[in-house]
Design brief:
With 219 residues, this protein is of the alpha/beta class. The protein has 7 helices and 7 strands, in the order H-E-H-E-E-E-H-E-H-H-E-E-H-H.
């Protein structure tokens, strides 16, 4: 059955809810290619997340682009996030922007740098030969290409699959928590999620790692 041209608009609300659930434990989050920052505002409202959104264009930023209800929007190139210190972010997300990056691998390496150990990255994008290809005819990646670049950037436990009738890529990956993981000794996702939750709760209790505070930003 042929999909309607407004398919992506129809699934937008469900997709955003799914992203919020996936990233609900992150208290400091970076959104690469944030656009209007609508997803960022939702993450801040629903999850209590402090979000920094970066985009090469600020044309769609909210009026109060410096800080608006728990979010910051910055006009920056994502392959050079010098204002963020190493390991200062709990999670990174990029929605519908990955295929537009001039140097996607460099962006992933920079995302890996700013992520804390054990942090996660989520990419949602249009796949090659999807409805988006027919509508906008841009250069999209396959699921395997996205997964390969994530591994090259140093991420582990990479999962890249199709969602919403194969019309989107949902790619999830992690920054190694310990050195052994970095040597590709991967951990099952169920175990990793359980450990991740335990670390979050313990850190929140101590008021350190995931405390509700802004990410460390260089001046």
């Amino acid at each position: 059955m042929e999909l309607p041209d407004d398919f992506y608009e129809r699934i937008k609300e469900r997709l955003y809810r799914r992203i919020c659930r996936e990233l609900q434990l992150a208290k400091r989050l970076l959104d690469i290619g944030c656009g209007s920052c609508k997803l960022d505002q939702l993450l801040a409202d629903r999850n209590g997340t402090h979000v920094i959104g970066v985009d090469i264009s600020n044309a769609k930023f909210p009026e109060n682009k410096t800080r608006s209800g728990g979010i910051q929007c910055r006009k920056r190139n994502a392959d050079n996030l010098t204002f963020l210190k190493d390991g200062s972010i709990d999670a990174v997300v990029s929605v519908y922007a990955f295929h537009e990056m001039n140097n996607a691998l460099k962006v992933l390496k920079e995302a890996h740098r700013v992520l804390q150990r054990g942090g996660r990255l989520l990419i949602v994008d249009f796949p090659k030969a999807s409805l988006a290809q027919r509508l906008w005819n841009e250069n999209y990646y396959t699921r395997s290409q996205v997964a390969s670049m994530l591994r090259q950037a140093g991420f582990i436990d990479v999962e890249s699959r199709a969602i919403f009738q194969g019309q989107l890529i949902w790619a999830l990956a992690w920054k190694a928590h310990i050195e052994q993981e970095a040597r590709h000794q991967t951990i099952p996702h169920q175990v990793r999620r359980s450990c991740y939750k335990q670390r979050v709760r313990a850190a929140a209790w101590k008021g350190s790692l995931f405390a509700r505070q802004a990410p460390t930003i260089s001046t």
